[in-house]
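Recall the central idea of this unit: under ordinary conditions, the amino acid sequence of a chain determines the structure it adopts. In this exercise we apply that idea directly, starting from the sequence alone.
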Amino acid sequence: MSPTRPGAPRRILVADDDPVIRHLIASVVRNEGYAPVTAEDGREAIRILLSDAGFGAAVFDLMMPHIEGIDIIRHMRTEKRLMRIPVIMITSERELGVMRDGFNAGAALFLPKPFTAEQLQSSLRLLLNKSGAASRPSLSS
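Accordingly, the structure predicted from this sequence is:
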């Protein structure tokens, strides 16, 4: 990963085509002390990742226009500078095969829709602590 400025909050890439969900996720990310960078669809998320790999984590919707979340993860796992970014996949899909495919592609966690802000907060804390990306002591509490 690209280093971030000293003292700057870690950034988390958020990609969801639903503006309400995207805003909710960005708010939770911000409340956790991180800086959200948002994308409206998979193509924009890929563009952001190709221009800047300095993210502590990512949250992707499974079903998005142009490029689906699982395909973004597959691409990330082929790029050395992107492969270490942990990803939470969010989806309203309930089929176990979809989750299996997501984990096989490299998703670290799945969060089913609808979810609460507290569930997302817990998932972010788990993901960031597990990946070693957390730099704030309050995340481990």
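The first strand starts at residue 11 and ends at 15.
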